[in-house]
Amino acid sequence: MTLPDGYSDIAAGKIATVVTHLEMRTPPALPPELPTPWTVRHVAEPRLDWFRDLYTRIGADWLWSSRLRMSDAELGAIIRADGVEVHALQREDRDEGLLELDFREHGECEIVFFGLTATLIGSGAGRVLMSHALRLAWGKPVSRVWLHTCTFDSPRALGFYQRSGFRPFRQQVEVIDDPRLDGTLPRHVAPHVPLID
Question: For residue 86, which of 50, 121, 57 has the smallest C-alpha distance?
C-alpha cells in the first residue's frame, strides 16, 4: 500500500515518521585504528536491565521505544539469539554507546541499533563506533550491510550514515503509538516531536 499524495491524518495517540533505509554493497576504506578515549566491547550475554537502561539513555530523546514494549522473553530472544551481536562503546568504564548487529539473514548484516548518549554526540565517538561496526560486519561473509534512520532521529544521523558510505534505497512512513502517552517514555522527551493529547 502506498499513501496518496497530499496530507493524511494520524489517529489520536499516534505519531508518524519517515523512515529511510540505507545500504552498503562493498566494504569502505576505513581509517586505521588509533588510540581514542573510547573502547568498544562485545557483550556476549546482555542482561535485560542493562540493555534497557542503555537503550533508554541513548534513545529516549529519539523516541526509541520498540524494545521497551517487549516482554523479557521477547527481548531476550532477540538480543541473545544466534547471529545477533551486541556491543557497547565505553568511556571511563561507563557504557555510552550501543551497537546491535544482526547476521541472521544469509549474506547480510543489519545494523539494527546504533547510537550514543547525548554527552558523546559530536565528539568523534560515533565515527569510532561506526568504524568498529563496519569492520565487524564486513569481517563476515556478507555482500550487504544495511540500516535505517527516521525523522524522529537526530538530524545529523542521515548525513552521518551517508558520509559513512551508505546509500538510501527505500523510504516508508511508520505510524506508532506515542510512547510518551502510555508511560513507555517520559512525557518531556523528544521535544522536537509535538505531543498531542
Answer: 50
